[in-house]
Amino acid sequence: MQPESRLILALDVNNEKEVQNLVLALKKWIGFFKIGMRLFFRYGPEVVNEVKSMGGRVFLDAKLYDIPSVVESAVKAIGKMGVDMLTVHALGGVEMMRRSINAIRENNYKTKILGVTILTSFNQESLKKELGIRESIKEKVLFLAAKAKEAGLDGVICSGEEIKILRDSFGPGFLLVVPGIRTGGIKGDEQRRILTPEEAVNRGADYLVIGRPILQAPDPVEATKKIAERISGISFNARGKEN
Fold first, then answer.
1. pTM for this one?
2. Longest Cα–Cα distance in the chain
3. Would you give the end-to-end CA distance of the chain in angstroms?
């Protein structure tokens, strides 16, 4: 992959005008544009169509989580939008995930479906105190990723701390999409399990989800170019060899 194709920009902005400006300015330097709940609940499919009409590929971070039949129906509807990536919660179970991916394949949609494991806003302490999960984060992420693979999903969302164990466990064909990428200090940062772009790619990440380091930059285009340059010398064969 070209370095810029690995970059996913999180469109964590407030209105369509900001979306338009970012997509038009950055589509040459960004592989996918991530639309999350913030935009989708405000504008619905319209914002997906808008990004696609401007030549951007769409990662719809819907984080679907419900009983299998409900999620299956939602995935069928989303597939018609032509999104390129979609997320469901791995905690929804194998049946929910399996019916999600089958809904895509049966309708010949090309959407990749990824399982959300443990959000990067959690660390070990908060996982135990807030969710009552006593396993280590790596153990839980590995378990959920194994269930996602069993269900036939294309890959998972994970933090930089779990990349190596997942790559070693599931090989190069299982997509690892990594948020929590940082290049310096960030205002109001909620992420707790973070890495630099180089660290993430070296450990085996396929795609990097980046928001604030680009959105808060004085020049988003220049910031994006610099991130692409930082990972441009890291070959596929070198990935996953960092201890």
1. 0.89
2. 46
3. 23
Contact by Cβ (8 Å): 36, 9 = no
CATH of the domain at 206: 3.20.20.70
Q: What are phi and psi of 118, to 5 degrees?
A: -115, 125
Q: What is the domain count for the chain?
A: 1
Q: Which domain holds residue 63?
A: 3-238
What's the residue count for the chain? 243
- 36 within some domain: yes
- Residue 243, domain member (yes or no): no
Nearest to 227 by CA among 219, 96, 145: 219
Q: CA-CA distance, 95 to 75, in Å (whole number)?
A: 14
List residues with catalytic annotation: 63
Residue 196: both structure tokens together: 């630099």
Per-residue tens of pLDDT for the chain, all 243 residues: 677 889 999 999 999 999 999 999 999 999 999 999 999 999 999 999 999 999 999 999 999 999 999 999 999 999 999 999 999 999 999 999 999 999 999 987 899 999 999 988 888 899 899 999 989 999 999 999 999 999 999 999 999 889 999 999 999 999 999 998 887 654 444 555 678 899 899 999 999 999 999 999 999 999 999 999 888 875 544 444 443
| Separation in Å, CA 170 to CA 25, 55, 136, 167 | 36, 32, 19, 5
